[in-house]
Structures are given as structure tokens and as C-alpha cells.
Amino acid sequence: MLNTLWLGFFITAAISALAQWLLGGQAQVFATMVESLFAMAKLSVEVMVLLFGTLTLWLGFLRIAEKAGIVDVLARWLAPLFARLMPEVPRGHPALGLMTLNFAANALGLDNAATPMGLKAMRALQELNPKPDTATNAQILFLVLNASSLTLLPVSIFMYRMQQGAADPTLVFLPILLATSASTLAGLLAVAVVQRLPLWHPVVLAYLLPVALVLGGFMALLTTLSAAALAQLSSLLGNLTLFSLVVMFVLVGAWRKVPVYEAFVEGAREGFDVAKGLLPYLVAMLCAVGVLRTSGALGYALEGIRWCVEAIGMDTRFVDALPTALVKPFSGSAARAMLIETMQTQGVDSFAALAAATIQGSTETTFYVLAVYFGAVGIQRARHAVGCALLAELAGVVAAIAVCYQFFG
What we know:
Keywords: Membrane, Transmembrane, Transmembrane helix. By secondary structure, this protein is mainly alpha-helical. 78% of the residues lie in helices and 0% in strands. It has one domain. The protein has 17 helices and no strands. The protein is globular. The protein starts with a helix and ends with a helix.
């Protein structure tokens, strides 16, 4: 699957570039594409430098948590739920606790902690994989839920809007919550249908319904806060949770007689090894994405969408927000650039900018997640992971647009 996808990126880019040259007379497109190859290779190294430090730090703390038994406690508590959703993972397996920590970090917008936890979980799942080059059902479900990325506190989106002079940076808070919830639900349902997971089993509902009620109550509470209070709570809750995890790991480790310093160094060494093996996968995926974007293929897709929307008589304001949606599956940095460009050209509180911000917060960067998580364990056959993740991303984009028309239309 990944071989076909990667090849398809380059073939699509080549066709698009030829069209720009032969039909549009833009011969410089080939120079731009070659430049993009080297730029994406450089970006891959820059991303890896950040990942080296982040992975080394957090896998060090996670090793303390493992030796202190924190991960095992989480795994035992969630064993009945994951026995239905991931039947091939044994009850009490360390991967279950690591996945829980990853989901919690994602929900709070703690990307720098979520990725190392997720990679650790993926490696734990890989230990159960009978075919090391092919993704298992459990790995696919985990990746899709990561790609859909349920986020309760999208602090980075607030920051972008504040930098561009928005009167109320948190105006998109509730629309993002609704859109990211739709994305996660779509991803879970898509995988459940393909893998025939028993979502309506009483045990599954006993876990998921209380979580949904708590999330709903939390959303309702946050909507009563002022913009200033919400922004302050977002920053405080995220940083407090992050530091509290560190302190808890260390204190519980010391209480359980774990040599915390030695455990940290042991885990940090593992983080260094993990990061080192990711670079080839990142270079491969980011270079393909860069060529696809600079070839003009995404621009052609955007104009085609605008023409179709006009033809059926629908409102076209949302089309100006679609550059963010079209590049989001491929490149997080490109999506951020598109979001900021939309804010600057359309106005930070224009409908297009509000829709683009909601889209940006609704999902993760699918192909980046795919390259990092599967690349970390050497998986080459993704099976239905790409289709389910892209379906979740599409659901997030559609929900974001619909919600924005409801709130700002």
C-alpha cells in the first residue's frame, strides 16, 4: 500500500507539472519541484533533530513509569475494553497502558509528549506482530485514532489567531471540539466496520459512554468561560498535566525502589535508537509530499472543487479554506502555512480563516503519522490504515465546514 501511495504521489506530480509546462508555459515548475525535494530533505533532518530530543526525554520518563508499574496498572484497568477492541493483544500487555497515556496527551494538545508515548506503544504492539512488515489490526486501530487526534485544548490554533490579531483567539474552540470529535468517531467506526469490532458490546459501552459524558460535560463547562479565562485554562491545564506526569513518574518510581536516574538513562538511550531509524521514512514521505504540492496538483484540485460547487449553486466561501484541508494530510507545516496565509489574505476573522482554523484543529497530519509510527517499526504494508485514516480526516473537514456555517455563517 505504501509503495503504491508513494509512487502515486510522484506520478501525479509529474502529470501535473507537465500540464503546467505544456498548457501554461511554466517551465520553471521543474526547478521548483527539484528545489522542493532538497527543501523537504532538509526539513526531515530538522524534524528529526526535534524528535531526537523529545523522544530521548520522554522515553526516559516512560521507562521509569514502566519499572514503577504505572503502565501495568493502566493496562489492567483497560484490559476488558481492549480485549474487545484489540482481541489479539493479551490482557495486561504494556502496550495498553502506553496507548492510554498517548490518547490522554493528544487530548490535551501535548504533542511533544504524545508522539514518544505513541511510538513506544507501537513498538510494544510490534512485539506481538507475526508478520513484522504488515500492520496488525491493533496497530491500525491505534494509528487511525492517532491520525484523527481528538483534541480538547487546541492551544496552537489559539496562538496562531492571537498572532494574527484576532479579537477573540478562542472563538473557534467549540467548533474545533465538534469537528475533532466527528473525526475521531468516524475513524473508530471505519475501523470497527472493517475489523468487525463489537462496539455495541455492554463492556465497550460501559467504558465509552462515561468518557463521552465526561467530555460533553467538560465541553459545556468550557463554553461558559470568557475568552481570556479559556486561553489561560488551556495553557495552565496543558503545562500542569505535563509536569504532573513527570513528577508522578519520578515519585512513584522512587517509592517503588526504582533507580530512577538509571532507568531514565536506559529509556533515553532507547529513544535515541528509535529516532535514528525514523529518518529514511520521513525523507521518503516528506519529499513525495513536497513534490506533489509544488507541482500544482493541489491547486488543480482546488479549482475543480470550486467549479463543481458553483455548478450546483452552493455557497463557495468555504473553498477558500480548502488549501489547509488539501495539504493537511500530507504536511503539518504546509497546513499551518496555508492557515496563516488565509488569515492574512482573507482576514483573521473572515469565514474562510475561521473555517481553515477549525479544519487545522480537527485532525492530525495523516501521512506524517503514518510515516513516523509505521516507520518506527519497519511496517511497509499498511492494509486498511490509510483508507480509514483518510476517511476520518474527510469527516473532520466536512464537520468543520458544516459547524462553521452553523456558528459563523
